[in-house]
Amino acid sequence: MDSERWQKILELFHAAADLPVERQEEAVRAASPDEATAGEVLRLLKNDQAEAGLLDLPVSELARDALEGMAGELIAGKKIGSYRIERMLGEGGMGTVFLASRPDLEAAAAIKVLRDAWVSPARRKRFALEQRTLARLNHPNIARLLDADTLGNGTPYFVMEYVDGEPLDAYCAGKKLPVAAVLRLFRPVCEAVQYAHQNMVIHRDLKPSNILVTRDGAVKLLDFGIAKHMNEIEMPAEQTRTGMRMLTPAYASPEQVMGEAAGVGSDVYSLGVILYQLLTGRLPYDVGGRGPGEALDLILRSDPVRPSLVARRVRE
User: Which residues contact 139 (CB under 8 A, 6 or more apart)?
Assistant: First the structure.
């Protein structure tokens, strides 16, 4: 899908979204240049009316298809501000991350570009919140914010410290670290989270893939994409949609799984799950393939096997 057609779809969507539901289809079909365009707009409207909201999977897929051309422009050799794109590092719930270099400083950086920027103002707001959160945090074990701006087409981005490392669980497993070494490595993770809490920031998505270990053994906490300042007030429905769509259930606290507000204790719970995994090689609860209700029931109604027993079984 080319960007011109996508802009037309968005224009029709926003115009129809302001109308009463019973009038939307008629208005869309009357204003659409063809049946295919009308169908896409009606699909957007249907998802917008659903409980999960506009940003759920079908719309994200549509937006991603439409914006592929724009993302494709950010290829090796292209420049964003003072930085030159080297390659794409990966995609997350909010944006695409690129490895970039700054030749004049001989420095590397990670540039996060907001995906689906035109789908919802809420997505821009959350991206800006992540940017402000990183600007607030200055800790040796948290990846730093270096710069922020917008692309020529208005898409926001920010530049972060590039961390060349591997996820915490993979690092510990690969090195076959003994318990004492795992605990020494885990301590700065806790210190980074404590520092964030002291600055009124709750991470809300702690998991091994968001904690990287460099070759020299330094730990860096990443991805504050769904972090929340303790003074912010979210409506319950917003908490539910954002949290359930973007969090990782295996590491989420019970209140997060239930769609309730996350607090300091939520991050502490996630740290406990991570440490359990590092010490035993498995998660305390197997929630894979389970819905939120099943996962919550498992967490609330059963106790995990003690780490010492799991470790003993592994040795045997």
Answer: 191, 192, 195, 196
Which H or E element spans position 278? helix 264-280
User: Tens of pLDDT along 152-171?
Assistant: 777 888 899 999 999 999 99
Q: For all residues of the chain together, what is the average pLDDT?
A: 78
Q: What is the structure's pLDDT at 69?
A: 43
Q: At what angle do helices 3-17 and 21-31 cross, to 10 degrees?
A: 150
List strand residue ranges (DSSP E) for 76-190, in order.
79-80, 83-91, 95-102, 107-114, 145-150, 156-161, 165-167
- Listed residue (204, 200, 220, 224) closest to 212, CA to CA: 220
Q: E strands, 154-257, where? A: 156-161, 165-167, 201-202, 211-214, 219-221, 228-229
pLDDT in tens, 62-91: 444 444 444 445 566 788 888 999 988 887
Asked if 173 contacts 128 with a C-beta cutoff of 8 angstroms, the reply is no
Name the residues annotated as catalytic: 205
What residue type is 75 in one-letter code? I
